[in-house]
Design a protein that fits this description.
single chain, 140 residues, alpha+beta, Beta-Lactamase, 3-stranded antiparallel β-sheet, 36% helix
Length: 140
């Protein structure tokens, strides 16, 4: 669920409504959370019929998804390069609660080039870690 947002001061923007709910398997946002769930919970989610990590469920590539989870665990962020919507790219990082489990994510989404999205990755990861610290998570 979208609980907060910041819109830049540009003339053109993307609107995501506060309160909007997405599947936990939705794009980069879902990958950032599911990558850090306990294995049992992640496996339960991955048994679902409709997984939207790569857009439409029929586009799902499980091998690629597992590689994306591993990369997210290592780098602290993940990408959606036009899969949920071909006009937008997204960068997402998990946000952890005091127990060390993911409680949400922080995402930058917009008309970003692939190279710009990749450059933003470490910054979004840092923002996710900082918000996690502020929420009481103990970060490495």
């Amino acid at each position: 669920m979208v609980i907060a947002k910041y819109e830049g001061g540009k003339d053109v923007g993307l609107t995501v409504r506060i309160g909007r709910q997405h599947s936990i398997t939705h794009g980069a946002e879902g990958k950032a959370i599911v990558a850090f769930l306990p294995e049992k919970e992640r496996d339960r989610i991955l048994k679902r019929k409709d997984l939207f990590f790569h857009g439409n469920p029929e586009k799902l590539n499980r091998r690629r998804l597992m590689n994306e989870f591993e990369k997210c665990q290592r780098l602290g962020y993940t990408l959606d390069l036009g899969e949920m919507n071909p006009r937008f790219n997204a960068v997402a990082a998990p946000v952890f609660g005091p127990s060390g489990t993911p409680i949400g994510q922080i995402t930058v989404i917009g008309i970003l080039s692939t190279s710009w999205a990749k450059e933003l990755g470490p910054l979004v990861a840092d923002a996710g870690r900082e918000l996690s610290r502020q929420l009481g998570a103990v970060m490495k």
